[in-house]
Amino acid sequence: MLRPAMSQAVAPFPVVDHQRVVFPDGLALDCGAVVRPLVVAYRTYGTLNADRSNAVLVCHALTGDQYVAETHPVTGRPGWWESVVGPGRPIDTDRFFVVCANVLGGCMGSTGPREEMTDAEGRGLGRPWGTDFPLVTIRDMVRAQKRLVDHLGIARLLCVVGGSMGGMQVLEWAAEYPDAVFAAAPIATAAHHSAQNIAFHEVGRAAIHADPDWAGGRYWETGRVPAQGLSVARMVAHITYLSEQALTRKFGRRLRGASALTFLEDVFEVESYLRHQGSTFVRRFDANSYLTITRAMDYFDLAAEHGGELANAFRGTRTRFFVASFSSDWLFPTSESRALVRALNAAAANVSFVEITSDKGHDAFLLDEPDFHRALGGFLRGAAERVGV
Amino acid sequence: MLRPAMSQAVAPFPVVDHQRVVFPDGLALDCGAVVRPLVVAYRTYGTLNADRSNAVLVCHALTGDQYVAETHPVTGRPGWWESVVGPGRPIDTDRFFVVCANVLGGCMGSTGPREEMTDAEGRGLGRPWGTDFPLVTIRDMVRAQKRLVDHLGIARLLCVVGGSMGGMQVLEWAAEYPDAVFAAAPIATAAHHSAQNIAFHEVGRAAIHADPDWAGGRYWETGRVPAQGLSVARMVAHITYLSEQALTRKFGRRLRGASALTFLEDVFEVESYLRHQGSTFVRRFDANSYLTITRAMDYFDLAAEHGGELANAFRGTRTRFFVASFSSDWLFPTSESRALVRALNAAAANVSFVEITSDKGHDAFLLDEPDFHRALGGFLRGAAERVGV
């Protein structure tokens, strides 16, 4: 019954050479700290046109990264949104210049817990930030992206688009930089994180904290990573990404072996699947980043940032909004999108809303959902025509 | 950021002197093993009448026990169903003789992983069963209860009642011993465990397995219990017991302190609550029992036991059924109760069904729900009148 050891060697710093831009003056965060320098790792797809009017910023979700539409450098698997971003896809890279940045606090090259800690003057301290990395907010993530977008010479984004935590960033973009966002597509998201979502995140964090290999966050000193804790965190999160229908359709109560009445692990197919999800995740994701980013999501409350009234976040906006939810998503249910649409209506914003019928749960925004792809593609083409791209 | 150590001293065997009955011949289990002797710890409330016709068997849920309507000997807290069982309560102990047994595989005195392991002749081996305890099923639990009921001289129970896993036992009683069950009240339950429910259980088991203090299940040798792993298991389970509405009403996004942007733990009240739930649970519950009982629930599939057709489990039954669900229960949703009612109808059984409107989630069956209490009390009084109690 002993679990196989899941410890893995870990280099003190990442070995992948990500494309990055360094801002030596750093970034002042909501919590009062300054990270200096600010490093933003990013990828682009397609070509920026002459008047720089065809840029689409894609914002990634909790465990996503900047490798949207190409083979992932760590896992070797396809990009996480290749069904949506690429030549002839809804976000057509033959027409649009697509940018995606690893979020601040992430673990794929942007400033975050796994990168080298710096002092107030920006000097490297020879060890990772780890849990000394300051608390970041969704707004901080968006501020870092704004620096990148400015660096690329783009005054106005044709569209900012993202699902889940990516959608939170879209909303923050529209609220903070309305003149820089012609169109915004927050998908399968909400204007705040619910008590239930906070609770599920807390379970994941507790599992990481409980892993002795976490070592108070200083696991680079031991050469081991908290693989079991991070794996449990991923397992519970993964359940919330799927619908009950999707789990039942995929696995039902199917057994892995012929004999049911054994006490082996992974008796049911769904268990084996979850364990696989957990164990593959730890190969690509940093536990301290997971703690940092889940906290950022938990803190997100756009209404609270605007005097307690969500509509205030969008007063006077000229941005066009496309809000989409999925009928079986219980993590970010349609009711959250409706609340967002009501606030946008109250702010007299230009908004279209669609609930996509799907039994795939929250994950639907990442999967093959033709109705969603048609709706998003149509919205983007309409925006492009209006701008003259 | 280091979590405080949660290790606790643990005696090799429990110290509470539970009321028990010992069956020296033991019990043959579905898995083929025999546990010998079989010990059933139980409590009774009220008085058995002269013709032994007023007995109500209460079946407890995953983390419940036999202390239904009295102060718990370990926690010192009220019994888990005092709102339902007691003088003048829906299950009126002035009128009925109430019996509740700790389930086989449990940790409150019945044969289970925390009790002393025995050999084939029933001789004690001087150490707990631990993970050598054989796999048990819901049907095995019910067989053990049947031995107790026979021992008490009760040929027919007026009613078998229970919620959640208790409801699974009710269904198994009605299917296995129809002539011994005049009335059956399966509440907030289902005739099988769903893929999503299996998945949540698997997260809990993975968290226990991941705790080094679990020590391959032999934690009595170290004097420590896998408190952190069991606590994480309890936390995730607890989320599933509550509705999103209940969590939001109880906690919303309220912060524990004045300042939001700190990186302390338990920033939100919901986190503090969950951690408290986890840490109090480990004081009263055995991790190996948790593994054993969750597995029993996962395996439960009454239709599969009856040729794949749920109605077959109840063909020819004369038992009266009272099926109840709660509108915001997403762990055992109303759709599962409806499927059960359809099967009972197909078997021409006498069945009444009620969905109680409640925003308290799965936990509602344990809480103050007057409509539920009235319905259950009415059903039981009707059965009693028919029997002439």
Kindly list the characteristics that best describe this protein.
32% helix; homodimer; alpha/beta; two-stranded antiparallel sheet; 17% strand; 2 domains; Rossmann fold; eight-stranded mixed sheet; 9 helices; 389 residues; Rna Polymerase Sigma Factor, Chain: A
What does this structure look like?
2 copies of one chain form a homodimer. Chain A has 389 residues and is α/β, with parallel strands linked by helices. Chain A has 2 domains: 20-192 and 301-387, Alpha/Beta hydrolase fold, catalytic domain (Rossmann fold); 196-296, Rna Polymerase Sigma Factor, Chain: A (Orthogonal Bundle). Chain A is 32% helix and 17% strand. Chain A contains 9 helices and 14 strands. Chain A has helices spanning 138-151, 165-176, 195-210, 227-241, 244-250, 269-284, 287-299, 334-346, 370-387, and strands at residues 20-23, 27-28, 34-35, 38-45, 55-59, 85-86, 91-92, 97-101, 116-118, 124-128, 157-163, 181-187, 320-326, 350-356. The first copy, chain A, has an 8-stranded mixed sheet, sandwiched between helices. A two-stranded antiparallel ribbon of chain A has the order 2-3. In chain A, strand 11 (157-163), helix 2 and strand 12 form a beta-alpha-beta unit. In chain A, helix 4 (227-241) crosses helix 6. The longest helix of chain A is centred in the C-terminal third of the chain and has 18 residues, at 370-387. The termini of chain A are far apart. Mean pLDDT of chain A is 92; it is low at 1-9. Chains A and B meet through helix 3, helix 4, helix 5, helix 6 and helix 7 of A and helix 3, helix 4, helix 5, helix 6 and helix 7 of B.
